[in-house]
Every structure is written in structure tokens, then in C-alpha cells.
Amino acid sequence: MEQINNIQVVPCTSSNYLRPFRVHYNQNGTKKSWDFMQTHDSVSVLIFNTTSHCFILVKQFRPAVYMSEWERSKVKPLQPAEEESAEPAPTEAKVPEENQAGDSSEETSSHQPPASAGVTYELCAGLVDKPNLSLEEIARQEVLEECGYDVPVTKLRKITSYRSGVGVTGSKQTMFYAEVSDENCVGEGGGKPQEGELIEVVKVPLHEAMTFAFDESIPKTMGVIFSFIWFHSNMSPKYKISTNV
């Protein structure tokens, strides 16, 4: 998962997943414009294993996160006042050889972060791109493909739906809750390699969930944090186990 190399950033002239637009409009008599991306809606699933009392998450490399961290790691130019007093110094930070995400070619900058900078923990999730399937059926497919659990559609409980990326995409995500047991595990998960997916299934014990959620050193999506809080408020009394808030 963390062997990332030969990175090239090129213009995106066409995509099956997003399209950029600019909308012009009047609001209260004022002319305005806004740039946005048209994307698919999505579903996510909080999975709780009742056999081992743990949450089932997925871990994967996210190029967008990685490139954001790469930009953040670049050495910022000195301000005019700093330039006068600062001693000459190297402009790039050396990444330890064993942690380098790319190769040593001239195209690869030495301040390139390790591939782990782009790895995140997430809920099982997927795009709503199958018009013939309901949201529940899409969620069920994602749970099976990514995490290896066969969950009947009737066992999926809707938690809520909300807008994500309201400043850029405005797409809607619908979140479900599913309880599984070891008997429901019919495969290893990991996603579809033929579609470029490389996913690791991760188990978070119930008693460690809230500590995990608020540990900023663990990169995760907001969906993980919100769903763990939801579980603590709505489901924890059922199991009479502290989620370590």
C-alpha cells in the first residue's frame, strides 16, 4: 500500500468522477460567481462486529490527501524581513531513504513526504453510481467488497444523510449502521483490484473507539468521528460497555 513512486501531476481534461463548473447568479441584487465540482453522491457504513465487539474500518491511500500533504511540506519562501537576517540554508528537507514514497529520479523532489502521509482510516463507503440499485443495495455491495461481510439489506439501518464538501461539491452522503458477526464474514475484503482498489480492513475495539476518534495523530475522516459519537449515544447502552469517552 505504501510503495508509491513515479508521481506525475497533469491537467485533468476529462473524468468519470468529477466535472468542474462555474455558476453565475444574482443574490439579493448582487452579481456573484462560484466554482464547483459536480460529483456522485455516496454511501458509508458504520460496521460493528458483535462477536468481537469492534468496529470495522478501512484503510487506504488517498492521492488527494497525499498531494495536500506534499504541498504543505514544501519549504515556504522567506519573508523580506527574514531574508535579510537569515543565514543561507538548504531549501529542501531530506526524506529518510527507507521512508521515501518515490524514486530518486530528478523528477522527484527531495521534500516528497512518505506514502503514509496519504493513508487514511475511513468508514466503508462507495459512490452512488448504479441507477438500478437502491442506496441500501449499494451499501451492501460495498460492505461485501471492501470488508468481506455479507449483510442483508434489511439489516442496514440508516443513521442520517448530510452534505459533504459544501464549498466545492455539495454532494450528499447517506450513512448506514450494520451489525455483523464472525458468521457473516465470507471473504477478506480489500475492494476490487481490477478497479484499482487496495484496501486494508482494520478493527477498532469498542473500548478504544472514542480515544481513536479524537487522536489527531491518526488520520481519519469526519465520518469516523461522527459515527463513533452516534454509536456512543445510541447503541452503547445496549452492550453495557464504555466507549472510553
TrEMBL record:
Keywords: Cytoplasm, Hydrolase, Magnesium. It is found in: Cytoplasm. The keyword rRNA-binding does not apply. GO terms for biological process: nucleoside phosphate metabolic process; ribose phosphate metabolic process. One of its GO terms (cellular component) is cytoplasm. It catalyses: UDP-sugar + H2O = UMP + alpha-D-aldose 1-phosphate. SUPFAM superfamilies: Nudix. Residues 38-226 form the Nudix hydrolase domain. Residues 76-116 are annotated as: Disordered. Its cofactor is Mg(2+). It is an enzyme of class 3 (hydrolase). Its EC number is 3.6.1.45. GO terms for molecular function: metal ion binding; UDP-sugar diphosphatase activity. The keyword Hydrolase applies. Signal peptide: none annotated. Coiled coil: none annotated. Homodimer. Belongs to the Nudix hydrolase family. Hydrolyzes UDP-glucose to glucose 1-phosphate and UMP and ADP-ribose to ribose 5-phosphate and AMP. The physiological substrate is probably UDP-glucose. Poor activity on other substrates such as ADP-glucose, CDP-glucose, GDP-glucose and GDP-mannose. This is Uridine diphosphate glucose pyrophosphatase NUDT14. It comes from Phoxinus phoxinus.
